[in-house]
Design a protein that fits this description.
By secondary structure, this protein is of the alpha/beta class. Helix content is 44%, strand content 14%. A hairpin with a 4-residue loop joins strand 3 and strand 4. Helix 2 packs parallel to helix 6, helix 5 runs antiparallel to helix 6 and helix 10 packs antiparallel against helix 11. The protein starts with a helix and ends with a strand.
């Protein structure tokens, strides 16, 4: 009996030591409350090592049960104590204090802006599990580092000179890691955001076309068109190898300082012409003005689906016309066959018999003329400024369509 107890205690000590060793071995993942398994920590640590080896950035994450004092100070101290690189990022999720902190070190402070911080946090926060959230966070950071995806997009079309005598860097598409609804302006409730995400994912699978929504508090010096195009391109939006889709960007503000822009790419250029984009925006305006944001974006989804539904086949339409003509011909022929009061005549003698027709006189009278003219309507140029021209080239060198305006 004693041998069994000793063996059991020995096994427990070994297991406990293994867990401690596993946690200590990770220089990127810190879990105060055992929210992650050993295998999950090992996999996440492998992802972090890969990012550090490729880009020289130490990307860390800490799950803290309860941090006394400033979460930011805690993150800074932990990073400086454990990180292997001067450049890096550490997110601390302070569960007990219900606060999180993003600490940036080295040149990460210039690469990762406040907007990108929100995107990276949302990548983690939108996932239901700690493991999935941290994996999404790593994927978002890698997208940023991979060619400066969020921070410094190419501003010269591919093949053209950027003024230094060299051609601009060729755009390299990336996989989308962000959801189809990115609410950086915090206009939607969590329930509304999740419902819209689910709806857009369903539409993407059904019609092989991605519809997306982006809200931002600030355009950061860009036009709405430039912001929408760059966000679409450098974050991997669009369905399939041609990145087919449409994205609506909305920036709230005071009257006259609200901006909305729809950008289209791939097959989305044909499916959603600029006039169609104008119609979609027209249908959303009232809800946006009244701050009914979920209703506005559902209207966007409704109209997007309407224009994606296949049109009636031309052959089917032609068959319907032919069948209708045949049915009409048979009916008229049947009615005409019953009319026996008229007989076919081969000459006009029946009309020239004496007494059959008498003409007593004829004359024409000119009573005057009147000319009516209607002026051609002039186009109305009084609408708010915007863009609804043809396709254009974004900073990535890719073609986009769309339309937008301020209101």
């Amino acid at each position: 009996m004693k041998k069994r107890i000793i063996a059991l205690l020995f096994a427990l000590v070994i297991c406990f030591s293994a867990v401690i060793s596993a946690s200590a071995a990770s220089t990127h993942i810190f879990d105060d409350g055992s929210h992650l398994s050993y295998e999950e920590i090992a996999e996440l640590d492998s992802m972090a090592n890969r990012i550090e080896n490729l880009y020289g950035y130490c990307v860390m994450f800490c799950i803290a049960e309860n941090v006394d004092g400033s979460t930011y100070d805690y993150s800074e101290e932990l990073y400086n104590l454990e990180a292997d690189s001067e450049n890096g990022i550490l997110i601390t999720d302070n569960i007990g204090g219900e606060k999180y902190s993003i600490y940036l070190s080295g040149d990460a402070e210039t690469v990762i802006t406040e907007q990108i911080e929100d995107i990276i946090w949302n990548a983690y926060d939108s996932n239901e599990t700690y493991y999935g959230g941290i994996a999404s966070y790593y994927a978002a950071v890698e997208t940023v580092l991979e060619g400066g995806a969020y921070a410094s997009p190419v501003t010269t079309p591919v093949g053209e000179s950027d003024g230094s005598g060299e051609s601009a860097t060729e755009f390299v598409p990336v996989e989308r890691t962000l959801p189809l609804v990115v609410d950086n302006a915090d206009l939607l409730t969590t329930e509304e955001e999740n419902a819209l995400c689910a709806r857009f994912e369903t539409l993407a699978q059904e019609y092989q076309m991605e519809l997306a929504v982006l809200t931002v508090p600030d355009l950061e010096g860009k036009t709405a068109e430039e912001y929408a195009d760059d966000f679409y391109d450098y974050n991997g939006y669009g369905y399939g190898e041609n990145d087919d889709g449409m994205l609506v960007l909305y920036k709230p503000g005071e009257e006259g300082n609200r901006y909305i822009h729809i950008t289209t790419h791939g097959k989305g250029l044909k499916a959603f012409s600029n006039s169609v984009c104008d119609n979609i925006i027209d249908s959303m305006i009232d809800d946006l003005k009244n701050e009914n944001y979920a209703s506005a974006f559902n209207t966007y989804a409704d109209l997007g689906e309407k224009y994606l539904k296949p049109n009636v086949s031309f052959i089917w339409l032609l068959m319907c016309i032919v069948i209708g003509m045949l049915a009409g011909f048979i009916i008229i022929k049947s009615i005409a066959g019953k009319n026996k009061s008229v007989r076919k005549q081969t000459n006009a003698t029946v009309y020239t018999r004496p007494g059959s027709m008498v003409v007593t006189g004829s004359y024409d009278t000119f009573i005057g003329k009147r000319l009516y003219q209607t002026p051609k309507p002039k186009s109305d140029d009084s609408s708010s400024g915007g863009s609804s021209g043809g396709s254009h080239t974004s900073s990535s060198g890719r073609s986009h369509g769309g339309s937008g305006r301020s209101f």
